[in-house]
Amino acid sequence: MAGYKPVAIQTYPILGEKITQDTLYWNNYKTPVQIKEFGAVSKVDFSPQPPYNYAVTASSRIHIYGRYSQEPIKTFSRFKDTAYCATFRQDGRLLVAGSEDGGVQLFDISGRAPLRQFEGHTKAVHTVDFTADKYHVVSGADDYTVKLWDIPNSKEILTFKEHSDYVRCGCASKLNPDLFITGSYDHTVKMFDARTSESVLSVEHGQPVESVLLFPSGGLLVSAGRYVKVWDMLKGGQLLVSLKNHHKTVTCLCLSSSGQRLLSGSLDRKVKVYSTTSYKVVHSFDYAASILSLALAHEDETIVVGMTNGILSVKHRKSEAKKESLPRRRRPAYRTFIKGKNYMKQRDDILINRPAKKHLELYDRDLKHFRISKALDRVLDPTCTIKTPEITVSIIKELNRRGVLANALAGRDEKEISHVLNFLIRNLSQPRFAPVLINAAEIIIDIYLPVIGQSPVVDKKFLLLQGLVEKEIDYQRELLETLGMMDMLFATMRRKEGTSVLEHTSDGFPENKKIES
Amino acid sequence: MVEEENIRVVRCGGSELNFRRAVFSADSKYIFCVSGDFVKVYSTVTEECVHILHGHRNLVTGIQLNPNNHLQLYSCSLDGTIKLWDYIDGILIKTFIVGCKLHALFTLAQAEDSVFVIVNKEKPDIFQLVSVKLPKSSSQEVEAKELSFVLDYINQSPKCIAFGNEGVYVAAVREFYLSVYFFKKKTTSRFTLSSSRNKKHAKNNFTCVACHPTEDCIASGHMDGKIRLWRNFYDDKKYTYTCLHWHHDMVMDLAFSVTGTSLLSGGRESVLVEWRDATEKNKEFLPRLGATIEHISVSPAGDLFCTSHSDNKIIIIHRNLEASAVIQGLVKDRSIFTGLMIDPRTKALVLNGKPGHLQFYSLQSDKQLYNLDIIQQEYINDYGLIQIELTKAAFGCFGNWLATVEQRQEKETELELQMKLWMYNKKTQGFILNTKINMPHEDCITALCFCNAEKSEQPTLVTASKDGYFKVWILTDDSDIYKKAVGWTCDFVGSYHKYQATNCCFSEDGSLLAVSFEEIVTIWDSVTWELKCTFCQRAGKIRHLCFGRLTCSKYLLGATENGILCCWNLLSCALEWNAKLNVRVMEPDPNSENIAAISQSSVGSDLFVFKPSEPRPLYIQKGISREKVQWGVFVPRDVPESFTSEAYQWLNRSQFYFLTKSQSLLTFSTKSPEEKLTPTSKQLLAEESLPTTPFYFILGKHRQQQDEKLNETLENELVQLPLTENIPAISELLHTPAHVLPSAAFLCSMFVNSLLLSKETKSAKEIPEDVDMEEEKESEDSDEENDFTEKVQDTSNTGLGEDIIHQLSKSEEKELRKFRKIDYSWIAAL
Q: Which end of chain B, N or C, is less surrounded by CB atoms within 10 Å?
């Protein structure tokens, strides 16, 4: 025959953010360390080699920070004007940066003075990068040109003059030493090949391009302006998807170390994390100011975000919590379990399988044996009422369905009844629990009305409950008034007779509930 | 071509199984139970119905094994007869005509030639226990008029009579009295419960009685849940009783085990209680049997118990209180809210079943397929408790979706409402809960319908409610990157001037939705959810609403509470016709344009079948039932019939079933009930030696096929036989008067020979190719044969000899041929 059916606990949709593996992953950072820089932080770049230092470009300085240091371990400050886009070479030993005066400077990490200076741009250089062969530097400037420089003899190799507005972002391919990409305020992203003298591909972004990113495989291109757009390079620059999740210009892009997630920072003070398979937002970070730069350390260990107010926010991943092994309870010896395991079935033996035991919650066990008061006591325990009020409400509902709620509530002393009243006071006004709890409150009042006035503690609770109900009634009346006003507005706007639109309301309390005390 | 008789209303399936105690056969292989006018024989192992014993013309009220022959069964009926059956072959052996209504039957091993029955003779509510002497006679029908009175003024129910201690006494209870009649002394002792005079404790009246099989001990069950064990009742003064109390509600039935060591009791709690050694401490329970226990019976072998339940079910329970088999009929315990539906996949009838369940009932095999637990809550069976009721259900999208609505209303303002949507899972072959919606409406849901259009890409459900709204629910893709999920959400909410929405209905192609708001019918476009038009006849609230189908899809039909049936034309938006008809049930046929309407009048219910295109009905049958008809449904036939007559054409592709207020399921048929018996039930003739196990069905079937083959060959031979009549020898033998014929000994050989001859020629004709080979064989075997013939010649040198020898050789030949045939078949088999 069918076994005991456990009480169905009403589940309610959890409001707010859903807990997914992504939220768990991206929330697993310590509280951010804030470092004040001299000006807006325009670029943060991690060294690809251990110990994974990072370069922060702010105002006319470039600071190199160690991963866990809050003070810069090195500073490059020989810029006459604002520095831009300090970028590490793949081996982490060289650093290149552009500047407002049109110069491009190459530094050795250990040195102080620039190793090379590339002169040729006439206006501010906002983007520089090393090519994949490590011996060339690509730069883009506000004079609409993109230049390729040779590091050994610090000469200009090529100049592309295809953009018709400021070139503000760019990146070199990590696979092919000859390919690089630039994005410009003329709304285009262009791919250049150093072996030819002109661009090999151009895509129309639609807005000024603030940041570009090439996937490690080189197959996909991400460009950010007002929106983030993903382009398929292998199909000749076809638009794959347009992400419109930010409501202000997106200024920086970054890939997670696994390549599975794309991060974008925006002037709307948010960093969003997208899945690169479905291009859906899986997580979002909030920051205090508009974000200009963003970088992720190796293995996503650190997130560094630079903002317009010069604050650098550094978040470190929490170290894997080592679980303290609890002192193990003494269990029967292993031999007990293994006993008879390798017994072979003989011919005349009948194998009897033990039926799987169904685990029942304690309150279910009580209900199964019709111990109704005990079941109610169990769920009125403060640990249960605070953490999982829906269980308490479901048990009260079940007792009501069984017609024994009054019996279970009766015969309680001062302490127990104040437990019940505490629970009612906390949850009575919640619309999802109200229908069940109003009924329970009525029963309690009916039962304990004759003995009222004997305990000041309980009397106070009843008065509290009364005040709560009165407040709720006022609130509901106000809501109804608002609803009436809205109805009137809708009625004037309605075009057609007969059709109507339902207004969702939070009907909680029928007004005839009066709690007397 | 089916012979066209008149269409009759026939009761089909789902009759009660729990009317009386079930009876076990002596070897516990079979269990018998009364079921309407029949007695059903079930196997206790396979739960299959092995036989249906039909012969009574009225309700069967009692069955008992023949104490003198355990292979026979007595049954009594309200038609005034006692019948004796051979239950293994399902044959009626004898009928005893008593002549008055028999209400219960008892047998005693001690009273060999008589049985006890309960009759009411003078007044309608006074019942007597009488013994009937069954005369010994060879004829099929015997009059048994020899009645001797035993006890008067007893309860009608057989639960209130018990024979005890090998038939020494009989105990009967009624209200507050227990009377014991001793057969030897022919005296009656009467005991009254002391508290019965006291009005305060008036709840302890007797409900049932059982007697210990070997000791002088009577157990009686009471209304207040107590069981009293009476002893020493030979003395009116010194009698004692002890009380056993566990049940909190009425004790429905009691039974002692065969040895008498334990007592079984059951009641509304649906718990079987076993009291060991008649003490209150030693008790065992078998809980959660599903419904009120109505009867308990014990097998004579003592290894099985069985309980009959109010939900039309018999549970067979092992001695160690483990349920081993469930024989489930159509559940009829409770009122039917959901109406009758057809599951598009299994073609089973679907309706309310056990509390909180939907039952799937196969009409073809008259058997419950399964129960679907909808409410999924522990069922507390208690008097006066307001239960959650499953009020509405609908199938959609060819059986892929099932929507159910459950509600519980304690007070006017406190309504609990829940809608559940179930998806059919092909892997598990069952419905799985997909979406649960709490309070889909503010008030009761009055109607529920799926859009069943073939080309609809998105499943759509519409609910109409008393709160004045109808809501459209659609299946939406709720999946994110982590998991795939689909769920139902509300898509549109419509209302019309705050009237209560009472019915809703989709057109066949799903393009239009009709929703009735009290007196007004509104038509909505199902794509844009715009109100297209309204119809109003001011003839009372709309009770039923349905669209025409196929060629009549431009019509909309509505039946109102004031007894008007209206048909609107959707193209002209005008009333096409109306008729004065108090329609109770209106059901469209899914396979044709026909619509069946059942009207209710003071006399009874009438059936009208019509097409929406014309107001003149195709078929009218008056007086289909004296009761109110609650629900009806068209069930598509597996094999279409071919009635040519215009009046019966509506039955060609579908069959119409309806359910009356007393919950009997009826249908229309032209065949006689014998014809309607399914061949499956005939196949299940169990052989004595073979237990009816699943293996039996496999092997039995195989064997049956072999039997059929044999039969065929036999038939072939039988067909040939008439030809032999043409042979002059036989005709001479048969037509010559006996007194002029020579002696039989003389004729015999001639007769036999003539038969052999004819046979031989026949077979030769049949297998002409074999003839050559035969001849060859003959030549091969000729040496032997010659030897043989020579021998014969040696032994018998009579005048007649030659002829006989020749004949003998022929017969010899035939035998040889037979051997040869066997040889060949054997080679072929290699």
A: C
Q: How confident is the model at residue B759 (pLDDT cuts 50, 70, 90)?
A: very low
Q: Where are the domains of chain B?
A: 157-298, 335-423
- Alpha-carbon span A165 to A171, nearest angstrom: 17
| A435–B377 CB contact, under 8 Å | no
Asked whether the beta carbons of residue A2 and residue B290 sit closer than 8 angstroms, the reply is: yes
Residue B82 one-letter amino acid:
I
Q: Which two tokens mark B721?
A: 């036989």
In chain A, whose CA is at the least distance from the CA of B409? A401
Q: Are B350 and B343 in contact (CB under 8 A)?
A: yes
The answer to whether B378 contacts A500, with C-beta atoms less than 8 Å apart, is no
The shortest C-alpha distance from A508 to chain B (Å) reads: 12
Please give the Cα distance from B81 to B134 (Å, whole number): 11
> In this complex, do B385 and A402 lie within 8 Å of one another by their Cβ atoms?
yes
Where are the strands (E) in B87-216, listed by range? 91-97, 102-106, 114-119, 127-133, 141-143, 147-154, 161-164, 169-174, 177-182, 187-192, 206-211
The ipTM value here is 0.71
Query: Which of A8, A20, A500 has its CB closest to that of B377?
Result: A8
d(CA B417, CA B421): 14
Domain spanning B157-298: CATH superfamily: YVTN repeat-like/Quinoprotein amine dehydrogenase (2.130.10.10)
Check B376 against A401: CB less than 8 A apart: no
Residues from chain B contacting residue A501 (CB–CB below 8 Å): 493
pLDDT of residue A219: 87
**Per-residue model confidence as pLDDT tens digits over B264-278:** 999 888 899 999 887
Helices (DSSP H) in B91-219: which residue ranges?
none
User: Who's near B398: CB < 8 A, 6+ residues apart?
Assistant: B344, B345, B452
Give the predicted TM-score (pTM) of the model. 0.69
Worst-scoring range by mean pLDDT, B115-124, B380-389, B588-597, B676-685? B676-685
Question: Taking a C-beta distance cutoff of 8 angstroms, is the pair B77, B61 a contact?
Answer: yes
Q: Which residues of B touch A (CB under 8 A)?
A: 286-290, 315, 323, 376-378, 380, 382, 384-386, 388, 408, 410, 413-414, 416, 438, 442, 469, 480-482, 493-497, 522, 529-531, 534
Residue B768's Cβ-count burial label (10 Å; 0-12, 13-18, 19+) is exposed
**Rounded mean pLDDT of chain B?**
79
Question: Distance between CA atoms of A232 and A219, rounded to whole angstroms?
Answer: 6
Question: Under an 8 A CB cutoff, do B315 and A282 touch?
Answer: no
Find which of A5, A368, A407 to mutate to test the B interface (most B CBs within 10 Å of its CB): A5
What average pLDDT does this structure show over A282-302?
91
Query: Chain A partners of B410 at a C-beta cutoff of 8 Å?
Result: 400
Lowest mean pLDDT among A227-231, A297-301, B776-780: B776-780
- Residue B793 in tokens: 């010649």
Write down the pLDDT at residue A166. 93
Rounded distance between C-alpha atoms, residue A158 and residue A118, angstroms: 13
For residue A489, pLDDT beyond 50: yes
For A102, phi then psi, to 5°, come to 95, 0
Contact A402 B380 (CB under 8 A): yes
CA distance A156 to chain B (A): 48
Of A275, A278, A403, the CB nearest to B385: A403
Residue B772 has pLDDT above 70, yes or no: no
Measure A4 CA to nearest chain B CA, in Å: 6
Q: Check CB contact under 8 Å for A7 and B469.
A: no
Q: Which residues of B115-151 are buried (b: 16+ CB within 10 A; e: fewer)?
A: bbbbbbeeeeeebbbbbbebeeeeeeebebeebeebb
Dist CA A50 CA A171 (whole Å): 22
